[in-house]
């Protein structure tokens, strides 16, 4: 089932950060769309919850060196 999650992410400061997050999250199976807002420190992800879960998405962001501070569905 398709869902959307809004994650608050700290530590992103440039377009390289945006690309790193988009590429790492976008590579996950089941992720359909990734929107990164550098100004808001936010990542919105549309995904299929039968293929990937929020913990995996958060982990992909954290693996790039950023902190997932909060999330809301």
Number of strands: 4
Number of domains: 1
- The portion of residues assigned to helices is 25-40%
What is the second-level CATH architecture? 2-Layer Sandwich
**For the CA atoms, what is the radius of gyration?**
11 Å
The structure class reads alpha+beta
| Contiguous runs where pLDDT drops below 50 for at least 5 residues | none
Shape descriptor: globular
Question: Which strand-content bin applies to the residues?
Answer: 35-45%
CATH domain topology: Alpha-Beta Plaits
Could you explain the architecture of this structure?
By secondary structure, the protein is of the alpha+beta class. The chain has one domain (about 1-70): Alpha-Beta Plaits (2-Layer Sandwich). About 30% of the residues lie in helices and about 40% in strands. The chain contains 2 helices and 4 strands. The chain has helices spanning about 15-25, 55-65; strands spanning about 1-10, 30-35, 40-50, 65-70. The chain has a 4-stranded antiparallel sheet with strand order 2-3-1-4. A hairpin with a 4-residue loop joins strand 2 (about 30-35) and strand 3 (about 40-50). It is globular and about 30 Å long.
What are the salient characteristics of this protein?
single chain; 73 residues; alpha+beta; Alpha-Beta Plaits; four-stranded antiparallel beta sheet; 2 helices
């Amino acid at each position: 089932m398709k869902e959307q999650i809004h994650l608050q992410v700290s530590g992103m400061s440039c377009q390289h950060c945006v690309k790193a997050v988009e590429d790492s999250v976008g590579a996950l199976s089941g992720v359909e769309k990734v929107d990164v807002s550098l100004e808001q420190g936010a990542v919105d992800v549309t995904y299929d919850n039968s293929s990937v879960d929020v913990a995996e998405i958060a982990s992909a962001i954290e693996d790039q060196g950023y902190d997932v501070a909060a999330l809301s569905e």
